[in-house]
Amino acid sequence: MVDKIMDLAIKYNGNDVKRINHLLKVYSFAHYLGAMENCNSELQTIIDIAALLHDIGMHEAERKHHSNAGKWQEIEGPIVAQDLLNTINLDTNIQARVLYLISHHHTYKDIDGIDYQILIEADFLVNIFEDTMEKTAINNIKKNIFKTNNGIKLLEQLYGTGSW
After folding, report:
1. Do the Cβ atoms of 121 and 145 come closer than 8 Å?
2. CA distance 133 to 87
3. What is the DSSP string of 91-103?
4. What is the pLDDT of residues 32-66, one digit of tens each?
């Protein structure tokens, strides 16, 4: 199931190598964190699918709003994701949660589950590198966003965060 969705996401992004690489990196970190946090198989499936599709609305956001800002991704993403997910046989509860996560993945308050937390942390682990963030920004992200022990440990391992 997850492989089929990965294939759909890659095909949807066409030759946009940057976005394909991004979704694969976020998926890898999210899958790892889900496993490290001992998520059950349904939760892991939600995490995996949401990670693969979290930025799926970016092309539509740019086309309709001339911006790929987070708010536009949260609006356009679930529409595109639903179209892709309707082509496979996915449990309706899983689909609903994935769409919710896509529609909130740039909203960092009121995080209501470990799946949401892991998606946010995985996306930040990749964005920190891709956006070459400064150490002070990384420390603020660690302090204000990261909550899982494994996410914090990975953030520190990758970026050497600490108190300065």
Report:
1. yes
2. 38
3. -HHHHHHHHHHHT
4. 999 999 999 999 999 999 999 999 998 888 888 89
Contacts of 145 (CB under 8 A, 6+ apart): 108, 120, 121, 124
pTM of the full structure: 0.94
Give the residue from 47, 150, 147 showing the smallest Cα distance to 101.
47
Cα gap 32→112, rounded to integer Å:
20
Q: Using N-to-C axis directions, what is the helix angle for 135-144 and 114-130, rounded to 10°?
A: 180
Q: Dump pLDDT digits (tens) for 89-141.
A: 899 999 999 999 999 999 999 999 999 999 999 999 999 999 999 999 999 99
How many other CB atoms sit within 10 Å of the CB of residue 102? 26
Instruction: Yes or no: say if 81 and 98 are a contact pair by the CB < 8 Å rule.
Output: yes
Q: Which fold has domain 2-159?
A: Hypothetical protein af1432 (1.10.3210)
Rounded Cα distance, 10 and 4, in Å = 10
